[in-house]
């Protein structure tokens, strides 16, 4: 991970729970220098400045873009703000690492991809499950044929309460831009798309509460993934919140020779016919630091493994179809 070239200067827009975690990875990477922070919550902004000597601080991202000579922007604001801010970042010619989902609609996501391509910059997304040891190992099991022919995929997202206790904020429970369908399913959709292709036919039923501003409380869906060559692979999606259930977020891939399940983000277990699941021992590493390393490699022109806006757009299309849009 050592790099001899000048450091890549980074501006961060948004310092919520996820943004703060990625900031730690950016701070830790030898090729990155966090030069500027932007956050409208001034208490939160000042709390980060205490451990970031010499870093410029802003409450308006436009001022950061006008005044700071940064190379890369990490955008970690709520989804409905991605589009407008990202277009300004790209017009300024900055490389862009964006949180998921890419945007708040397919149309916005398409415009963001087109703008990134015009700008000729590195564009990438933070889908952290892809970089976790569990996500890497799951995809390897499939690619190496360890599960045999893939028969079916199941995605489960159960939450006794949404949002969860550590997620309380002004938007994550809103119908406009929140909900577990937007926040949780993209992690699994990205993995499924990367391995099995695009979504074709989709049948979906989304449950909403009486409050017209509140997010969904359930989803039951079926879709088919196809890479244009092999037979489509069916995907079953079971999502539920505000219910008497145990919290579980899982992606299960059923094959003719075995079944693999990624559960609660870090766990991976495998089962065979007439056998219980066995937890796989995985060598752990900092998955966010790996993401940042790939961003640095892309900016340097080296080999990298990034999830670009193009892949983010495919996830957005599937997401909006699942939501019935």
Itemize the secondary structure elements and their pairings:
Elements: E1 8-13, H1 17-28, E2 32-38, H2 42-49, E3 56-58, H3 61-67, E4 72-75, H4 82-91, E5 95-99, H5 106-119, E6 123-126, H6 128-131, H7 133-143, E7 150-159, H8 180-183, H9 185-196, E8 198-207, E9 218-226, E10 233-241, E11 248-255, E12 259-263, E13 267-271, E14 278-279, H10 287-300, H11 309-322
Parallel strand pairs: 1-2, 1-4, 2-3, 4-5, 5-6, 7-10
Antiparallel strand pairs: 7-11, 8-9, 9-10, 11-12, 12-13, 13-14
Helix pairs in contact: 4-5, 5-11, 9-11
Give a short synopsis of this structure.
By secondary structure, the chain is α/β, with parallel strands linked by helices.
What does this structure look like?
By secondary structure, the chain is an alpha/beta fold. The chain folds into 2 domains: 8-128 and 287-308, NAD(P)-binding Rossmann-like Domain (Rossmann fold), CATH 3.40.50.720; 130-285 and 317-322, Dihydrodipicolinate Reductase, domain 2. It has helices spanning 17-28, 42-49, 61-67, 82-91, 106-119, 128-131, 133-143, 180-183, 185-196, 287-300, 309-322; strands at 8-13, 32-38, 56-58, 72-75, 95-99, 123-126, 150-159, 198-207, 218-226, 233-241, 248-255, 259-263, 267-271, 278-279. The longest helix is centred in the middle third of the chain and has 14 residues, at 106-119. It is globular, with a radius of gyration of 20 Å. Residues 141-321 form the Gfo/Idh/MocA-like oxidoreductase C-terminal domain. Belongs to the Gfo/Idh/MocA family.
């Amino acid at each position: 991970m050592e790099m001899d070239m000048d450091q890549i200067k980074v501006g961060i827009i948004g310092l919520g729970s996820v943004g703060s975690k990625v900031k730690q990875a950016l701070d830790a990477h030898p090729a990155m220098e966090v030069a500027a922070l932007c956050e409208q919550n001034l208490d939160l902004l000042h709390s980060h400045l205490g451990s970031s000597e010499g870093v410029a601080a802003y409450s308006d991202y436009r001022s950061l873009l006008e005044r700071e000579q940064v190379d890369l922007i990490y955008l970690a604001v709520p989804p409905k703000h991605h589009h407008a801010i990202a277009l300004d970042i790209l017009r300024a010619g900055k490389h862009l690492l964006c949180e998921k989902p890419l945007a708040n609609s397919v149309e916005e996501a398409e415009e963001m991809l087109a703008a990134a391509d015009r700008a000729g910059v590195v564009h990438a997304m933070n889908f952290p499950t892809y970089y976790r040891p569990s996500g890497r190992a799951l995809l390897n099991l499939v690619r190496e044929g360890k599960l045999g022919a893939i028969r079916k995929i199941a995605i489960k997202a159960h939450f006794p309460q949404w949002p969860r206790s550590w997620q309380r904020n002004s938007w994550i429970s809103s119908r406009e831009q929140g909900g577990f369908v937007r926040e949780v399913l993209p992690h699994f959709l990205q993995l499924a798309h990367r391995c099995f292709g695009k979504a074709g036919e989709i049948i979906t039923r989304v449950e909403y509460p009486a409050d017209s501003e509140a997010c969904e409380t359930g989803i039951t869906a079926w879709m088919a993934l196809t890479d244009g060559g092999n037979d489509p692979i069916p995907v079953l999606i079971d999502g539920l919140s505000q219910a008497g259930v145990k919290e579980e977020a899982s992606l299960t891939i059923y094959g003719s020779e075995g079944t693999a399940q990624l559960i609660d983000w870090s766990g991976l277990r495998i089962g065979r016919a007439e056998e219980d699941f066995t937890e796989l021992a995985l060598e752990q590493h900092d998955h966010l630091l790996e993401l940042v390393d790939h961003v640095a490699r892309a900016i340097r022109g080296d080999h990298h493994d990034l999830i670009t806006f193009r892949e983010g757009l495919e996830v957005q299309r599937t997401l909006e179809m699942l939501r019935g849009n």
